[in-house]
Amino acid sequence: MALDALYRMSGYERYRMNKFEPYDLYLEHRGFLRDDAVISFTDPRGRLMALKPDVTMSIVKNASVDAAVERLFYIENVFRVPPGGSEFAEIAQMGLECLGCDSGRVQSDVDAEVVALACRTLDVCGGRSRLAVSHMGFLSALLDACLLEDDPREQALRCIRLKNAAALAHVLRGAGAPSESQDALLGALAVSSPLSSAVESLKALPLARVALEAVEALEALVKRLIASGEEPCAIEADPDAAGRLDAIGGNPDAARKPDTAGEESCAMRKEPDAFPAAAGAAAGGRGVSEGKPPAPRLEADRLFFDLSLVGEAGYYTGLAFQGYIEGLPRAVLAGGRYDGLMEKVGRSQGAAGFALYLGEIAPAFTGGRA
Hints:
alpha+beta
């Protein structure tokens, strides 16, 4: 119940998707899938369908095109090969999406709102947690400045993912990258500190204009979080913003509002039901009672810069982050800004969100048993 309450109090409405979508949706947007392997089948009407490997793609396709800003959360299972796996698995996840931000300032506010809610989500899960943060535009600009294309670029990305500076330097020299650009990329890889201080370190590097703009976007994120006084920042243009901030700060009635009515489609419908009992019981009991969100705690050292978050370079276009809980071996949460997907489906607005992998946090509630 805790995460369901947190998201609703923050102005997000729950949606539920079908288990499957037309296969063409994933074929057309294959480049945005984390794994291009999709389970497909022919339904009784002869249509080629697929068990959904991704939730965000379904939401973007079916969400209202009329809303200026639309906030949605979900509890869904996806079907794909998990990282490091060799077979398909049914993966339970819960997440949220904020769609429709189309100006620079509003994008900055949305990024701060989503990051703050990601931190709240980790709080509900319990234990000490951190959010590793990067920027795909920054990474892309650094690689472009090194004049890397095709195979050398893929080699560089592998080295960055492994944080192997020596191998990266070898790749850059072999590709004839300009020395100043090499210094910038290697210097960025070496930065590993709280995001606020990391921004200053990154700004000191010999950066091209595009890379510097991306660092300034991260700096704006830090400022928005600090300005909110440890509370997530809501979009200023939204008349309910102040109420949502009060709710997340500890007044659960300030922003509580019923789900609004709307047309339902076969692919997506509003689902007013509470968070399922099993998952809700896991999330509850960790400092949360009676549906009240946890007390805000966005200490600066919880957000760390990490250039090695390159696994989603084809999916996210700006901010990207992963959440970790002490004692668990892998990221339990991942998200960021995916304006490219919005553009691909013909929407000019931006979007950001994240997913919490419920299977990854299960050991925290079972004494380490998977």
